[in-house]
């Protein structure tokens, strides 16, 4: 792979493309930028591009203020760009796709990205739940494609799941371990089962917590406290669902219900709350209130 040495044993891709400059895409771009890569974010239109640019600039500013990087704001921003032109990704060594969790959209985007990349480039998806093998099916180089599942918020989340599809090469998995180390995070390698390791377990706990709330077992705060104080969870399952987004969790539950069976059936309360626009932190209300 074409790149520069940044950490012992880890080779950084010199140029990283991130497709979709939303919550996850900006966080991922920021992580690679701080690790020394040049970063291009691809957005769908000018408005979304301007938003992504602002969000990245703000994340960079915070890192400089907090002293998490020795480089200056202007220097870092000079190594980044937001574009709506897919051909700007042509010289990327690594692309991370982070568009919304929609199979048709991701399948289309991945094929279009692959078409502009060099044969030596690596292609990855930040999907939370979709099958890497399925996403790889129409690709010309499925051996160079894998899941690179980051967590929200990216800067403070140390885990990255590397998801190996049926046709992902061992070389791709080895390269991915290096990228994850290079950005200061810890990789786990997971085979391509629905929900991987994290979502499958995390969502089943959240769904049960919601059913407990429906049953009137305890208040949302007390159900969360049971897990935080009784089981040493850093955040309770209902608060975490608010942070992730009830709509995001519902989407994953529906997918896991279809693939893994009845135990992932979304509880009626979750469906009702999403329909009522109670999406958690981003809408100001979920299982808890989020005034800011
Ligand atoms: N939010 C989370 O907690 C979380 C955690 C891990 C993984 N993920 C996964 O990351 C992915 C992105 O999630 P998100 O929360 O960042 O979503 P988001 O809605 O915040 O961002 C998606 C971005 O993609 C852009 N986009 C849409 N269509 C596009 C196109 N054709 N070309 C370029 N850009 C396009 C949108 O404008 C938007 O900015 C999803 O697959 C999601 O499942 C999300």
SSE inventory with pairings:
Blueprint lengths: L2 E5 L2 E4 L1 E5 L3 H12 L3 E5 L3 H21 L6 H6 L1 E4 L10 E4 L5 H14 L5 E4 L6 H5 L8 E5 L9 E6 L5 H13 L3 E6 L6 H18 L4 H12 L5 H8 L1 H15 L7 H8 L17
Parallel strand pairs: 3-4, 3-6, 4-5, 6-7, 7-8, 9-10
Antiparallel strand pairs: 1-2, 8-9
The structure holds nicotinamide-adenine-dinucleotide (NAD).
Structure description:
- By secondary structure, the chain is an alpha/beta fold.
- The protein contains eleven helices and ten strands.
- Strands 5-4-3-6-7-8-9-10 form an eight-stranded mixed beta sheet, sandwiched between helices. A two-stranded antiparallel ribbon has the order 1-2.
- α1 links the parallel β3 and β4.
- Residues 19-25, 42-44, 48, 98-101, 109, 126-128, 150-152, 244, 248 line the site of nicotinamide-adenine-dinucleotide.
- One of its GO terms (biological process) is fatty acid metabolic process.
- Belongs to the 3-hydroxyacyl-CoA dehydrogenase family.
Helix content, binned percent? 40-55%
- What is the fourth-level CATH superfamily of the largest domain? NAD(P)-binding Rossmann-like Domain
- The N- to C-terminal Cα distance equals 44 Å
Number of strands: 10
Strand % is 15-25%
Number of domains: 2
Bound molecules: nicotinamide-adenine-dinucleotide
Q: What would you report as the Rg, rounded to the nearest angstrom?
A: 19 Å
**Overall CATH architecture of the largest domain:** 3-Layer(aba) Sandwich
Strands of the widest sheet, in order across it, are: 5-4-3-6-7-8-9-10
Query: What would the CATH topology of the largest domain be?
Result: Rossmann fold
Indicate the structural class. Answer: alpha/beta
Order of helices and strands: EEEHEHHEEHEHEEHEHHHHH
Low-confidence stretches: 1-10
Largest sheet: 8 strands, mixed
Pathway: Lipid metabolism; butanoate metabolism
GO molecular function: 3-hydroxybutyryl-CoA dehydrogenase activity; NAD+ binding
Keywords: Oxidoreductase
Protein name: 3-hydroxybutyryl-CoA dehydrogenase
């Amino acid at each position: 792979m074409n790149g520069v040495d940044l950490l012992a044993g880890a080779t950084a891709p010199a140029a990283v493309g991130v497709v979709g400059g939303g919550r996850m895409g900006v966080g991922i771009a920021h992580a690679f930028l701080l690790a020394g890569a040049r970063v291009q974010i691809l957005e769908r239109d000018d408005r979304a591009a301007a938003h992504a640019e602002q969000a990245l600039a703000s994340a960079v500013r915070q890192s400089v203020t907090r002293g998490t990087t020795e480089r200056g704001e202007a220097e870092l921003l000079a190594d980044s760009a937001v574009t709506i032109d897919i051909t700007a990704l042509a010289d990327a060594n690594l692309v991370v796709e982070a568009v919304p969790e929609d199979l048709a959209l991701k399948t289309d985007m991945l094929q279009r990205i692959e078409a502009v990349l060099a044969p030596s480039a690596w292609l990855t998806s930040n999907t939370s739940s979709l099958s890497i093998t399925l996403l790889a099916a129409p690709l010309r180089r499925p051996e160079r494609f894998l899941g690179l599942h980051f967590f929200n918020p990216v800067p403070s989340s140390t885990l990255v799941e590397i998801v190996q599809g049926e046709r992902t090469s061992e070389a791709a998995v080895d390269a991915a371990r290096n990228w994850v180390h290079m950005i200061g995070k810890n990789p786990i390698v997971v085979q391509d089962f629905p929900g991987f390791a994290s979502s499958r377990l995390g969502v089943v706990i959240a769904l049960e917590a919601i059913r407990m709330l429906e049953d009137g077992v305890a208040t949302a705060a007390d159900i969360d406290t049971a897990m935080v104080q009784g089981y040493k969870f850093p955040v309770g399952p209902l608060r975490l669902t608010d942070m992730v987004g009830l709509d995001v969790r519902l989407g994953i539950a529906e997918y896991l219900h279809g693939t893994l069976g009845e135990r992932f059936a979304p509880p009626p309360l979750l469906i009702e709350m999403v329909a009522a626009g109670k999406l958690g932190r981003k809408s100001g209300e979920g299982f808890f209130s989020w005034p800011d």
